[in-house]
Q: What sequence folds into this?
């Protein structure tokens, strides 16, 4: 987790419109099989973005500085 954790933080906070299009394309190719990945990604993005905002407000440092 020591090496994977920062990568997950960066990956989840980088979800944008292009990722939504990719999700739609994957959905047309694979159907509902990948729905769990989309839901899990959205949940992780919410909690990590919330945590990063709280970190900044509490410490005054960005997540990369911390």
A:
């Amino acid at each position: 987790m020591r090496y994977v954790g920062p990568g997950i933080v960066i990956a989840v906070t980088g979800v944008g419109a292009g990722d939504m299009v990719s999700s739609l394309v994957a959905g047309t190719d694979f159907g509902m099989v990948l729905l769990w990945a989309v839901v899990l990604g959205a949940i992780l993005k919410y909690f990590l973005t919330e945590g990063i905002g709280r970190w900044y407000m509490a410490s005054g440092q960005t997540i990369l500085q911390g």
Notes: The helical segments are 4-13, 17-30, 35-59. The radius of gyration is 14 Å. The chain has one domain: 4-59.
